[in-house]
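Board notes (copied after class):
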Amino acid sequence: MGGFWSSPAPPLTEANLQDQTGKVFIVTGATSGYGLLLARILYRRNGKVYLAARDTAKLQQVADDLKHDFPNSAGEVDFFHLDLSDLSTIKISADAFLAKESQLHALWHNAGVMIPPQGSKTKQGYELQLGTNNIGPFLLTKLLVAPRAPTPAIDFTNLDYHNDEWAWVKYGRSKAGNVLQAAALARRAKDDGIASLALDPGVAITGLQRTMSGWLLVIIRLISQRPEIGAYTQLYAGLQPDLDVQQPETWGKPGNLPRIARLLTSAAVVPPGKLVGGRADLFDGEASEKFWQWNEEQIKPYV
């Protein structure tokens, strides 16, 4: 079923994406949903695609399917195990990639957990969405590409969730954390030529809703779009040739997801009110730096 809003034509799809020969990509969450769709587009256009997820059997199946479905592709496909809910394993995953490659042209993180059963924890005891959607990707990004050199969005007094919250609030905080991480990395990476972007792929039924209640799934189906639109959003953010990464960018009409937040040099360059409903606190340099430093402390034993 289509959503309430009609989607405009995506500016970048598998139909007009340029040849990606020689490019190396990592797509996390690549066994289903947006990650899988994105991997198919990249491989079809001759990119070298590394798939990353927890289930290596599924990763092998996806790799086999790509080769079968696109026999004329000159690209390559490989994969490595990645469990973002266990920090002790992530360096092993990063090292597996770094042992094979000396360059990485784009890394796409796909949300790993959405509304799990209340009380769900990571291996290290973090609330599952905070750990899997924020701390785990933060560690992987730092190991791979970090440069050398709700209100409030993040409740720094409750990051251990000693005061429990509604699952949707916790999910919202983990997504706000992604924006803060993107802003902080952008400031650090600007001199190394690395762009750090946060994007909203929109609403679609994918494997992400596997723990969601049935009644909520009915609502999501009513407002959902084609999953391909979310993959196109990631494609646009990562590979659109004329993208101005210094400015906010939206394709589609207001209220119609997906929306891409451009976060480079500092949060101050992003006009409040145009991104994430005008939540200026999501672009606050002090908050993003504080969250970055908190993440640094959490991953210190695993770097």
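Comment from the instructor: Residues 127 and 162 are 10 Å apart (CA to CA). The radius of gyration is 18 Å.
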